[in-house]
Amino acid sequence: MAVKIRLARAGAKKAPFYRIVAADSRSPRDGRFLEILGRYNPRTEPSFIDLDIERTEAWVAKGAQMTETVEKLYKIAKSPEAHAPVKDEKLSKKAQAKALAESEAAAKAAEEQAQVPDAAATEGEASDAPSAADAKSE
Known about the structure:
This protein is an alpha+beta fold and 138 residues long. 45% of the residues lie in helices and 24% in strands.
C-alpha cells in the first residue's frame, strides 16, 4: 500500500480549509485516510499551519511520500521563524526628508568635532614652545 501525506479539503464553498492526512494513494482526495497529521488554513493572514512534526516524520520513515504542497508546509512548520514575512517600513516623503536632514546634521557635527581637536592641538604646540618674548626675559 503506497501511503501519501497530502491535503484533504474541508470547509465551505469558496472558503477552503485543509486537513493534512496520511492516506492510501488510491483513495479519493477527501475520502478515507489513515491518520490526521495536521491542519492548514490558507485564508488567514498569515496562513495557519498546525502539523504534528513527529508523526509526519514517523510516516515518512515508514515510506510515506509527501506531496509538493505538504512538503512546503512541512518546511514552514518545522522552522516558522525562517519563513516569517519580512515587512519593510516605508517612510513618507516628509519622514525621509527629516531623516536625511538629521543624518546630514550629524555628519556636519562630527566634522566640526574633528576640526576642533586639531585646532586645540596646534594651539597646545604653540604654548609648549618657548616664545621669543619668554627667551628675552630670561
